[in-house]
Amino acid sequence: MATALDLITLEEAKAHLAVDFPAHDMLITRLIHTAVALIEKRTQHMLYEREETRRIKSGYELYDYPATVDTLGDGLDYQAEEHAGYTRLYFGSTRPEVVTLTLGYAEKEQVPEPLISACYKLLTYLFEHRDTYQAELPSDVYLMIRPYQRYATI
User: InterPro entries of this UniProt entry (predicted)?
Assistant: First the structure.
């Protein structure tokens, strides 16, 4: 299973932060996960691939991107339509109660570069301000992710 460390490895993060000793490895690993999660939350782009099972309703709207349906069960059919910022799943005469989805980019190279850069920038900010940071995104990170934000209400 993929993790945030498939997007930014510990070695890449340490090189970016100019840290060459192991004392902060656990902290940096935690901050990688935090930075990626925050960018995902703000943009609703899933930056690495993972599977999730979700309960659904008819005309289910899926706001995480990218997404594909893995399992529906026997005899169930669906259509997926991509809209601006979300995917809508339409089911046939019967719909499943739960569906297994693959969410996220399968390859690091598929992730838009500004989102990766924003993760690095946020990682740097979190590392340098680990004891004093505020609960808001730095303005330069916000500017990088702004074009990728979705305005869905979940």
Answer: Phage_gp6-like_head-tail (IPR021146)
